[in-house]
Write a structure and sequence with these properties.
About 30% of the residues lie in helices and about 20% in strands. It is built from eleven helices and 13 strands. The protein has an eight-stranded mixed sheet, with helices on both faces. Strands 1, 2, 4, 5 and 6 form a five-stranded antiparallel sheet that branches.
Length: about 325
């Protein structure tokens, strides 16, 4: 059963069509990665799912559902009880996400008191237990410390603690390891996956790093120019990508033991202040056809992936397999 169902989510900010027809689902206990270039709309999609769309923006969707409930309207007071308890987020930069003037204990304890009705004493004990579970040494002493006294890796563990404190149904992680070195990155990813499985929560993992995605995700949705262009299992995405952009994205990843030059994607994403006609990737696509001037619809491939590409429609049976 789908825990999260996003159907045709669109967001307009002034003249900018920032999101267009974003659609994907997330099963209970699943980790789905949302990948794409910077500016593709990954983080903006996450903010919409938290009721934090930019002020003055216009949001529309056929359906935004968490379990059996529709997500509250943007700006609704209902979000005050939803955030933390039902949906929580781990932000990319913990140094700016945490309040620098309050101790770690005060910020973590507040979550337990407000959302779980604990006394201060109970909240302190729960905070210590959670920090210890996340492998933070001298947890009790650390409660009286401020964010600037922690390393980047330790701060991100605190952010994970804040996010999972109320055992939310949906956990969103927005590039949580980008600012960390490779060794610490691996430790944080392992902890995040452990906590997700332990709590049985669903995880929406946002990243531009396919190497990181390969280590944590069960399934992947690829975004380009504000829309989802492919959704597939992790294995299908890496072995038989269905959309030309996914193929190009994979080819652009440097290979450690390869003598070939990195294959950059030619051209640039479209200007979303102007109406996008047809397939948004067509101007950069080596497989473009005349029909690409029309907007493609989603279609399921024989491998079970869902993609937005004319090459998979029955009118073009000879073009089903793309070179990966």
């Amino acid at each position: 059963m789908s825990l999260l169902y996003v159907d045709q989510l669109s967001l307009r900010i002034g003249d900018n069509a920032a999101l267009r027809d974003v659609s994907f689902s997330l099963r209970e206990g699943e980790c789905r990665a949302l990948v794409g270039e910077s500016g593709s709309g990954k983080s903006l999609t996450a903010l919409c799912l938290l009721g934090l769309a930019p002020r003055g923006s216009q949001l529309s969707a056929r359906q935004l559902r968490l379990a059996e409930d529709m997500l509250p309207a943007q700006g609704s007071r209902q979000w005050q009880s939803w955030r933390g308890r039902r949906v929580a987020m781990i932000f990319q930069n913990p140094m700016t996400a945490l309040n620098p003037t309050r101790t770690i204990g005060a910020q973590l304890g507040e979550v337990f008191c407000l959302h779980r009705g604990m006394t201060r004493k109970q909240a302190k004990q729960a905070s210590i237990a959670l920090l210890e579970r996340l492998a933070i040494p001298r947890a009790e002493a650390r409660l009286s410390r401020y964010p600037f006294e922690f390393s980047g890796g330790m701060l991100q563990r605190v952010m994970i603690a804040l996010a999972v404190a109320c055992q939310p149904q949906l956990l969103i992680a927005d590039e949580p390891t980008t600012a960390l070195d490779v060794t610490v990155q691996a430790e944080v990813l392992a902890l995040l996956r452990e906590m997700q499985r332990e709590l049985g929560t669903s995880l929406l993992f946002i990243s531009h790093d396919l190497g990181v995605v390969a280590n944590i995700a069960d399934s992947v949705s690829v975004m380009y120019a504000g829309e989802t262009v492919e959704s597939a299992s992790l294995k299908a995405l890496f072995t038989e990508p269905a959309h030309p952009y996914t193929t190009a994205l994979r080819a652009a990843v440097p290979q450690l033991h390869s003598s070939q030059a990195m294959q950059a994607i030619p051209g640039s994403p479209p200007d979303l202040r102007q109406a996008v006609k047809g397939c948004a990737f067509a101007p950069r696509c080596p497989h473009r056809m005349a029909i690409c001037e029309e907007s493609p619809t989603f279609i399921r491939t024989p491998q079970g992936s869902v993609t937005r590409c004319w090459r998979w429609h029955s009118d073009h049976p000879d073009n089903w397999r793309l070179q990966s």
